Amino acid sequence: MTAAEARKGTAAPDPERAATGRILSRETRSSRAPAAVIAALLVIVVAVWALLEVILAGIDQPAWLLDPQSVLHAVARFPEGADRLLLGAAGAVLAMAGLVFLLNAVLPGRRARHVLSDRRAAVVVDDEVIASALARRARYAAQVTQEQVMVVVSQRSAVVNIRPTSGMPVNVEQVRAAVEAELADMAPAPLPAVHINVTTAGVVGA
Fold first, then answer.
1. Contact call for residues 161 and 175 (beta carbons, < 8 A)
2. DSSP character at residue 146
3. Which of 18, 185, 15, 182 has the alpha carbon at shortest distance from 117?
4. Which helix (H) or strand (E) holds 125?
5. Does domain 113-198 have CATH number 3.30.70?
6. Which helix (H) or strand (E) holds 33?
7. Helix ranges, 118-197 (H)
8. C-alpha–C-alpha distance, residues 195 and 123, integer Å
């Protein structure tokens, strides 16, 4: 393979596309900065307290909050003499806090937004806006009022809840087709799966 063929086969990265990808990622993913700041503040507070107590103990001054030596002895004897109910509550709180920080670090944080396909610009839309458009389309297809339709859009699903008018059955497949057509026009990524729920209790028509 010649050098010219190698250059032809290897496409140079598009800086504009890379910048757009970074913008879309920043707009659709939630920041982990708050959790990191909270964790850092907790560590700083504990470190400053421990340093202060060690300094006070070193100059033979009374402890500010807790004597480090007493804390070490209490930890060594733990859980001797401790209340089981209190231990259980403290353990549950610590486990919950640890789980929150762990999930925040491991799971991909996402905002309630979708990216819409557009050749000219990067378009990010809130899920509430998509839900409003789908509710309007479902309302027309089901021939019901605005108050009888509620749509919940998440990352992977769009749930359409309809309360029909008494004596007027709702054509579920017609509503599904209308909602899916609206989604196809918007082309959000990722594309939510449509779920239609029709309540058994109808609304008395005006």
1. no
2. G
3. 185
4. strand 123-126
5. yes
6. helix 33-58
7. 127-142, 172-186
8. 25
Q: Where are the domains of the chain?
A: 33-106, 113-198
Task: Give the SS3 label for residue 16.
Answer: helix
Which long-range contacts does 11-15 make (Cβ < 8 Å, 24+ apart)? Answer: none
**Number of helices and strands (H, E) in the chain?**
7, 6
- Triad 89, 93, 98: Cα angle to 5°: 145
| Structural contact between residues 124 and 116, judged by C-beta atoms closer than 8 angstroms | yes
Peptide bond preceding 188 in cis form (omega within 30 of 0): no
Q: What is the pLDDT along the chain (206 residues), one digit of tens a residue?
A: 444 444 444 444 555 555 445 545 555 566 666 777 787 888 898 888 888 888 887 787 787 777 767 777 776 676 666 667 776 787 788 888 888 777 776 666 666 677 776 666 667 788 888 999 999 999 999 999 989 999 999 888 999 999 998 888 889 999 999 999 999 888 887 889 999 999 887 777 55
Grouping H, G, I as helix, E, B as strand and the rest as coil, residue 201 is coil
As a whole number of angstroms, the distance between CA 169 and CA 34 comes to 49
pTM above 0.85, yes or no: no
For residue 177 the two structure tokens come to 């087709």
